[in-house]
Automatic annotation (TrEMBL):
Top enzyme class: ligase
Coiled-coil spans in chain: none
Organism: Blastopirellula marina DSM 3645
Keyword check for Glycoprotein: no
Keywords (A to Z) from UniProt: ATP-binding, Ligase, Manganese, Metal-binding, Nucleotide-binding, Purine biosynthesis
GO MF assignments: ATP binding; metal ion binding; phosphoribosylamine-glycine ligase activity
Family listed: Belongs to the GARS family.
Enzymatic reactions: 5-phospho-beta-D-ribosylamine + glycine + ATP = N(1)-(5-phospho-beta-D-ribosyl)glycinamide + ADP + phosphate + H(+)
Region annotation Disordered: where it falls in the sequence: 218-237
Name used for this protein in its record: Phosphoribosylamine--glycine ligase
Pathway recorded for this protein: Purine metabolism; IMP biosynthesis via de novo pathway; N(1)-(5-phospho-D-ribosyl)glycinamide from 5-phospho-alpha-D-ribose 1-diphosphate: step 2/2
């Protein structure tokens, strides 16, 4: 069959690469893709928001399955549009995608399902949110253990973890008054700050059966030691020792299953990837947020390790027969993804810098360089985003995987390139 992947980031490159390994797949198209997907698949110059043209292309090119990568088209209803056109498509419909499209809606479902999560308040304007912070924390210099979030989609950047009242008030100003995230800031969620290590547990569900993927750990803050502003993710590794097999069972029982049931009861049955962003507190795992697609960069190390044919999993989900597939097979070796970013990210950055050393990195064993923000100009690969590459490597241990990934990173250069140097170091404090 032919498969269409929608999106242009590192997640979509990893999806196209993995789908292309299936013996059942003839051609993989990526719309619009990037310089990396141009090597592993066929790029199509159609924007993810152009539903009519995507549907027309899928029909004309006999695409037996379309896989939606990013959250924005899912929240906008691309799955509904494809289904109405009689096409097979992987991902949740518009109603179910509100689990990521609205943090307030997600919190409501978590409360209904009795899933452990942070206490929260919802505000519809900056003034009421500001009054709440000033009334609750009147003393200058006191710890303000809250997190301020834009309700809607903000490319992973609409979250501010606060320590002082000034942090919270500034976040409220940026979200609700300056509208730096646009309409995503029409509502504000303020919730209690939870302390502990974060983990990502991704599961695929057809609304009845839940198949968990290998757990991973993302690194959201920009700089080493989890300092600096939040980003879309500066690296990830899988598996993470913080999620033991017994912890995984608890997460499935207390988090994933109740959430899927609550969505079904709300007449929003979920089919696709349900990604729980968790924090491991002293009281056990609690949900920070849900995403409705594969995480980026968690997707890259997870798919590096997956040995089961991905097409079999995706098709079974769309057809509602996930219970029939065999248990997933995994490479026992850990994998690590290091994100290489543009100077200035997650703030302002320049684009169009030529990237050198990609072919040298690609020749290293157990390494795959996934492209995120890249474009082709003739034969040159240029930077075209904040997060540019996801350098991913396998190794016999987490330490070896890290060494392999950073060995590849050192071979790649462009003006202003940078990365965190401590991806996966958290695993070293736990038995691996």
């Amino acid at each position: 069959m032919n498969v269409l992947v929608i999106g242009n980031g590192g997640r979509e490159h990893a999806l196209a690469w993995k789908i292309g390994q299936s013996s059942r797949v003839d051609r993989v198209f990526v719309a619009p893709g990037n310089a990396g997907t141009a090597l592993d698949a066929e790029n199509v110059d159609i924007a993810p928001s152009d539903f009519p043209q995507l549907i027309k292309f899928a029909k004309q090119n006999n695409c037996g399955l379309t896989v939606v990568g990013p959250e924005a088209p899912l929240v906008a209803g691309i799955v509904d549009a494809f289904q109405d056109a009689g096409l097979k498509v992987f991902g949740p419909n518009k109603a179910a995608a509100q689990m990521e499209g609205s943090k307030a809606f997600c919190k409501k479902i978590l409360r209904q399902a009795d899933v452990p999560t942070a206490e929260y308040r919802l505000f519809r304007d900056a003034d009421s949110a500001t009054r709440y912070i000033k009334d609750r924390f009147p003393h200058e210099g006191e710890d303000v253990p809250v997190v301020v979030k834009a309700d809607g989609l903000a490319a992973g950047k609409g979250v501010t973890v606060c320590r002082k009242a000034e942090d919270a008030l500034e976040a409220i100003n940026q979200i609700a008054r300056d509208k730096i995230f646009g309409d995503a800031g029409n509502q504000i969620v303020i919730e209690e700050r939870l302390d502990g290590q974060e983990a990502s547990v991704l599961a695929i569900t057809d609304g009845h059966t839940i198949v968990s993927l290998a757990p991973a750990q993302d690194h959201k803050p920009a700089f080493d030691n989890d300092e600096g502003p939040n980003t879309g993710g500066m690296g990830a590794y899988s598996p993470t020792p913080i999620v033991t097999p017994s912890m995984m069972s608890e997460i499935e029982e207390r988090v994933l299953v109740p959430t899927v049931h609550a969505l079904k009861r709300s007449r929003r049955p979920f089919r696709g990837v349900l990604y729980a962003g968790l924090i491991m507190t002293n009281q056990g795992p609690k949900v920070l947020e849900y995403n409705v697609r594969l995480g980026d960069p968690e997707c890259q190390p997870i798919l590096m390790r997956l040995k089961t044919d991905l097409i079999d999993i995706l098709e079974a989900t769309v057809d509602g027969r996930l219970a029939e597939i065999e248990p997933l097979q995994w490479d026992p070796r850990p994998a690590i993804c290091v994100v290489m970013a543009s100077d200035g990210y997650p703030g302002d950055y320049t684009q169009g810098h030529a990237i050198r050393g990609l072919s040298e990195a690609a020749q290293l064993p157990d390494v795959k360089v996934f492209h995120a923000g890249t474009t082709l100009k003739g034969s040159d690969v240029l930077t075209a985003g904040g997060r540019v590459l996801g350098v991913t490597a396998l190794g016999d241990s987490i330490a070896t995987a890290k060494l392999n990934a950073y060995t590849a990173v050192k071979k790649i250069r462009w003006e202003g390139a940078w990365c965190r140097k401590d991806i996966s170091d958290k695993a070293q404090i736990l038995p691996s």
